[in-house]
Amino acid sequence: EQPWCCELTDGLREFMLQEGLLRKSPSAVSAEEDGRLVLYNPATGGFFALNETGQLVWEALENWTTAEQISSRLALKYNLGVEIARRDADKFLSSLAERGLIDKQVARVK
Fold it and tell me: If DSSP codes are grouped into helix, strand and coil, which group holds residue 8?
């Protein structure tokens, strides 16, 4: 299991199961420190250091994207099965959401 993963709480699981578009929160600040990318949420004062895989996901969130698209990138880059990549991506994206570092736009069903 990747070190950048977290456990999914019920609220975060529901957040991730609602398929939608994701992107970096405009209020999130990132900076490189000691060769690692560190994210900062000014609203909470929290910091979050990313490893190489986390940085790949963070770069993908520059524009609106989906968890499925991010999972595909991870699967290709790290030669993972799609299900494993999606599980790990969902855990990491949930961790970012929990820290207020990403925004989500859910499509409305009419």
Answer: coil
- All residue ranges of the chain with pLDDT < 70 are 1-18, 107-110
Hey, what amino acid is at 55?
Q
Three-state DSSP state, 87: helix
Distances (CA, A) of 24 to 71, 80, 81: 16, 24, 25
Residue 18 main-chain phi, psi, to 5 deg: -75, 100
Q: Chain centroid to CA 84: how far?
A: 15
pTM of the model: 0.78
Residues 6 or more apart in contact with residue 73 via CB below 8 angstroms = 56, 57, 60
Give the orientation angle of helix 82-98 with respect to helix 52-60, to 10 degrees.
80
CA 77/CA 108 separation, integer angstroms:
32
